[in-house]
Amino acid sequence: MKFRMILLVGVAAGLVLASKRGRRAVTALSEKAQDAWTDPTLQKVISQTEQSAKDAAAAAQSKVGALVDQATAAVDTARERAVKVSKHAQAQVTDAIDAAVDAVGRDSDTD
Where are the alpha helices (DSSP H) in the chain? Predict the structure, then answer.
């Protein structure tokens, strides 16, 4: 029983000391982080990085816009060609049907 009591007192003392040291460490770390964040050099780097990202985004948007325009033009050209081919094929089919009808008509006239 005496051993358990000593163990509990030791654990409690360790927790109290560790929590005080832990709070100090967290406080010190927080202060260092705040100092680093407010450092003018770091803020300058952050600002430059933000501007670079904005510039890169604008350049990418411009390139994507140009590619979309090219793709739209290509689709329009392909559509126009398809319409021409379709009209040509339709005219050929119509001519073939007319020729077949004429041939059938002539064949029935001769019988």
Answer: 2-37, 40-110
| Mean pLDDT in residue range 76-81 | 96
pTM (2 d.p.): 0.47
Rounded to whole angstroms, how far apart are CA atoms 24 and 98? 99
DSSP code for 111: -
- DSSP letter string over 45-65? HHHHHHHHHHHHHHHHHHHHH
In the block, which residue shows the tokens 């005496």?
A: 2
CA dist 92 and 85 (Å) reads 10
Amino acid present at 10: G
Q: Cα(95)–Cα(106) distance, rounded to whole angstroms? A: 16
Under 8 Å between Cβ of 42 and 36: yes
